[in-house]
Amino acid sequence: MHVPDGFINAPVSVATGVVAAAAVAVSLRGARRELDERTAPLAGLVAAFIFAVQMLNFPVAAGTSGHLLGGALAAILVGPFTGVLCVSVVLLMQGILFADGGLTALGVNITVMAVVTTVVAYTVFRGLVKLLPRKRRSITVSAFVAAVLSVPAAAAAFTLVYAIGGTTDVPIGQVLTAMVGVHVLIGIGEAAITALTVGAVIAVRPDLVYGARGLTAPLKLRVGGELVDTPAAEPVPVAARSHRPVWLAGLAASLVLAGFVSFYASANPDGLEKVAADKGIDAKVEDHAAADSPLADYGVEGLTNSRISGGLAGVIGVGVTVVAGTGVFWAVRKRRTSETSPSQVGESV
Amino acid sequence: MTTSSVTPVTAPSLEVSGLAFAYPDGHQALFGVDFTVGRGERVALLGPNGAGKTTLVLHLNGILTGGAGTVTVAGLPVGRKHMAEIRRKVGIVFQDPDDQLFMPSVREDVAFGPAAAGLKGPELEARVRTALERVGMEAFADRPPHHLSFGQRRRVAVATVLAMEPEILVLDEPSSNLDPASRRELADILRSLDVTVLMVTHDLPYALELCPRALILSDGVIAADGRTGELLSDDGLMREHRLELPFGFDPRSVTMGA
Amino acid sequence: MGAGHAHRLYRHGHSPVHALPPHTKLAAVFAFVLVVVSTPREAMWAFGLYALLLATVAYAARVPAGFLLKRLLIEVPFVAFAVLMPFVAQGERVDVLGLSLSVNGLWGAWNVLAKGTLGVAASVLLASTTELRELLLGLQRLKLPPLLVQIASFMIRYGDVIADEMRRMKIARESRGFEARGVRSWGVLAKSAGALFIRSYERGERVHLAMVSRGYAGSMPVIDEVTASRAQWSYALALPSAALVVCLLGWTL
Known about the structure:
The structure holds three protein chains of three kinds.
Chain A lengths: L9 H26 L3 H15 L4 E2 L5 E2 L4 H8 L1 H19 L7 H26 L4 H30 L6 H33 L8 H4 L26 H25 L4 H12 L17 H5 L1 H34 L1 H7 L1
Helix pairs in contact in A: 1-4, 1-5, 1-12, 2-4, 3-4, 3-5, 3-6, 3-7, 4-5, 5-6, 5-9, 6-7, 6-10, 9-10, 9-12, 12-13
Chain B lengths: L13 E9 L5 E10 L4 E5 L6 H8 L7 E6 L2 E2 L5 H7 E4 L3 H4 L5 H11 L4 H14 L15 H13 L5 E5 L7 H13 L3 E6 L2 H7 L2 E6 L2 E7 H6 L1 H6 L18
Helix pairs in contact in B: 4-5, 4-6, 5-6
Chain C lengths: L15 H4 L2 H17 L5 H18 L3 H7 L4 H13 L4 E4 L2 E4 H27 L2 H10 L4 H30 L10 H28 L16 H23 L1
Antiparallel strand pairs in C: 1-2
């Protein structure tokens, strides 16, 4: 999964680096608000957990085995902000300490594996948890669906980056089909493990599952007193009890994405827009099966002709994504802060 | 109730009075704890599992607050106002040294507390060196903590707290998981220190060896306070509070130097 | 992908490369890789020169060639991808040994392999000559957000502790006759993963208590700071500067 150097051209590598940096900056603020001064030790330990759990082998068949990628799991267990941070730190350390993933590709790797995976997984998870009946099984099911979608979404996001800044003119339609196809399979494995793991945590310490905070309140009596918790930490901000903030954030995200896609299409009128559009929708939560056929015969002649213009378009496109992404996070954040302090709810909702 | 002849020392290091505390889930752990530890004393806090020992320890430096009663450290009440000062004065050595040693190298770990209090440069270096020398670990300063043996990690954990020059050293199960040699080495170190010690332990022989005085915390109150040897020899008291001596150990036959 | 995370790359030594301040090395490697990635793929000789530059550094750092080459295996999954490129890429085609290959794809495969390999080699050189702790100090010095450096440093401190816990759980499972085979054992493995998460999180809470007990109030005290002299900077930046010259030649020639 870790993209090496040379896969994505320099301008787009730099631009994704900017996206990644922005996302990490937003997550730092978000995580600090959720965990305050506990951020460093808790996020550090969760990062160490993800690092370790990636070494846990799950046998598949005939001697082959897979392992967890952990993005969806992190998002559900510790929330999107801390999740992005943990996975980003894991990727950073893998790149620097183990030469796993190129240094110039760090932006791509963080954007795709930390940000897209975590945000998609968390959005899907919260959405489903709201819709499904309030049962423990719903949480497991939601975790499964969230993880199963997050992996091909990351693959699609990678293909999008590749379409903008890939160094070889491989037919993007085929790349998308292949990437998404393979990653749906990987995603099923990931989803099974994620759902089982979330289930295991929720059976013992439901209070630790960030994504299920609002739901576990009625179940909480079963937990009993956990001795090391300061009373100050007790009034846990119950995330998004009403459906509205989540759906508003989702709507904002789709609008912004649609805006990005159309902007990109008009800026680069060479037939890529359809690919980008379809993928833009993919990057959200829709079904991937529909994305296959209409794309198959699309080439990237536009990019072949002038690499520079491609790079330029990429930079512009990614610039827009930065603005868009910041906007989404800002919107989500605003919602959340207004929820945590009940006194403000009246004014801002 | 055994309250006997321990002469109270002037200017106590620690004064706990009427301390009661319930966790937010309603579980009450402390029901009015009263005791005083004089300056330079070494006191053992004994008690069965679930007696509230850990809860009590977390009150001593203000990590848990909000119940009834007061804790005073060297005349300073534990509260939001003096928190930094209190945390410098009360040095807690936690049970698992891996929790305590969170920095990448021994030296930085020992420096953490004093540096957080604002110490810098050569002064900080000197403080770190002294603390490591007191536990005999100065040769390991640049090693990462996870490359040390368990006993060495426990000693470094003690040094991290000593570096803050605390008024009172609070040890949570200091002898757990130590082999007999490390256990003795730690005892030698603790004896050599010139600070007030409150030692929370299940290891009754260790308490007898190191602490002239002991407290028994049971069901959230101090059930007994007296000379360690006398408490351990009181079979009825011991049985009542689920305290058991190791097989073949007779506190009456042990002669203590300290 | 999954393999090799547990390997420590650091090799103890006293070479001039080891002695350089970590942030200069980080900056140099990063700049070098960026230059390599920006080089036009048609300038094949340039990549040869880059490899020569890295070989010089490896020689100065006394990192044996075998060690470096073994580590390049991390790339294998992407080599597979690169091998596919000449078959699937578009455009003009040539016949090689009876196979119809895309010229563009061949260039693409070369591009990814050359740049990827140089990138991994540069990172391996960095990791094998710089201690973990130094790397963190270097990142801190390069103005990475302090909170991020703290998270990374906790991750490194407790990575082994948690991996050990995982190993002990595995031994405990196997001692009780459990054998991980096939998908049916996933439930048990996932329960272990869940338990590992709970232990990690609770340890995080305990570590926080230990920190607070020693006066932590949200920011780490700066205990060590790394500094570099002008000479050290110019020494470290010799690598990317030389590479930049090569790169510019590659664009103009």
